[in-house]
Amino acid sequence: MPSEKENMLSGKLYKSFGEELTAERQCAKELVFDFNGLRPADTIARHEIIKKLFGKTGNTFFIEPPFRCDYGYNIEIGENFYANYNCIILDCAKVMIGNNVFIGPNVSIFTAGHPIHAAIRNQELEYAFPITIGNNVWIGGNTVINPDVSLGDNSVIGSGSVVTKNIPANTIAAGNPCRVLRQITEEDRLYYFKKIPLE
User: Fold this and answer.
1) What's the pLDDT tens digit per position in 160-170?
2) Which of 46, 70, 79, 89 has the least C-beta neighbours within 10 A?
3) pLDDT band at residue 196, thresholds of 50, 70 and 90?
4) Distance between CA atoms of 144 and 122, rounded to whole angstroms?
């Protein structure tokens, strides 16, 4: 008989309030509390907490407090990762983030979901599907990324988006629901915002 943790990690329905998962969330909460409570200058101590909390980190990363997550060990980040204030990652399933990913403030990444039918949902059952964020992705502030979504390499997600489907590589996408607006082209090298020339 698989454990609730095994069911969670395999995308099956599970109950999150068993002894094992509750203890693991509590451990993560303690580490997150310590991280968020450090003084701004204590960057080395904050880095050490994230290295202990996350399943994998690069050598170079920066996460602005406050930060929240469920377990921590399901989060993997690449090199040169940056997350602005109030990042929330509900990592009941894997969250795999590539290199050079920049996350704006108030971004929420949710692997967790609940059944649509109330009769199943009221049994305290939930599920979790992984999220993959490629290399060189920029995610604008107040974006929500839902379960079972992939963001392709070099994609840009506009502020306030609600991402419910995969976003292809090399595209700009925005909206609720988030949809592709256009491809990123070589012309974008010349401009940083709405074709305003760089000096």
Assistant:
1) 999 999 999 99
2) 79
3) confident
4) 25
Between CA 95 and CA 90 the distance in angstroms is 9
Which residue bears the tokens 């090199």?
79
Q: How far apart are CA 107 and CA 141, in angstroms?
A: 6
Work out the angle at residue 126's Cα, subtended by the Cα atoms of residues 125 and 128, and round it to the nearest 5 degrees. 155
Provide the pLDDT for residue 198: 64
Cβ neighbors of 77 (< 8 A, separation 6 or more) are 54, 56, 57, 58, 61, 97, 101
Tokens 């920029």 — which residue?
Answer: 138
- Domains delineated in the chain: 4-133 (2.160.10.10)
Residue from 5, 29, 68, 114 carrying the catalytic annotation: 114
Q: Is 114 considered catalytic here?
A: yes
Question: pTM of the prediction?
Answer: 0.96
Helix (H, G, I), strand (E, B) or coil at 68: strand
Q: SS3 of 70, please? A: coil
Tens digit of each residue's pLDDT (9 = 90 or more) over 4-14: 999 999 999 99
